[in-house]
Amino acid sequence: MTGESRAQSNSWPSDWFDRKAGRDCPLCARGRTDADEYGVRIFAGECSDAYLQREAIQPGYVVVVWRGRHVAEPTDLNPQESSLYWAEVLLVARQLARHYNPAQTNYEIHGNTVPHLHTHVQMRYLNDSPPGKPLPWANKRQLPHHQFENDVRQLRTIFGYRPQGVAD
Ligand SMILES: [Zn+2]
């Protein structure tokens, strides 16, 4: 983020409530795509998609995106939707934990930039920093390409996920 844009971000956008209501929502516009500029899909559930993130503080950072109608807050889900969404978030997290063997799993819901319901699932390791606190988002970096591609391949196998347009 540049100094100029940081200075401009000292207040919430004037159209914030329109965005929360779904106007110009980038996640709704993008739809259930196999990949976007941030990550690659490793899981497609009934009501969510999970994307392994190219930029991360450490391996095992996945964003689970609610799909369907535009929803900003988890409290906007009806009981059936919320049960299904949390079940899918936990399914993803459970398999990530088996794969990465973390010391702890973190779940974060913010929506402060893109107000469309999504959950950040992050693996924490005994040697990561800072212990006992949330990971510092400013320390995100591009993961090594071979490591990222290897993780995508393995996680897609674990989730039984086959990218769209791939016949076999
Ligand atoms: Zn949306």
How does this model look, in words?
By secondary structure, the chain is an alpha+beta fold. The protein has one domain (18-125, 137-158): HIT-like (HIT family, subunit A). It is 31% helix and 20% strand. The protein is built from 5 helices and 7 strands; from the N terminus they run H-H-H-E-E-E-E-H-E-E-E-H. It has helices spanning 3-8, 16-20, 26-30, 79-100, 145-158; strands at residues 39-44, 48-53, 55-56, 61-66, 104-108, 118-124, 141-142. The chain has a 5-stranded antiparallel sheet. A two-stranded antiparallel sheet has the order 3-7. A hairpin with a 3-residue loop joins strand 1 (39-44) and strand 2. The longest helix is centred in the middle third of the chain and has 22 residues, at 79-100. Zinc ion binds next to helix 3.
Which features does this protein show?
168 residues, alpha+beta, two-stranded antiparallel sheet, globular
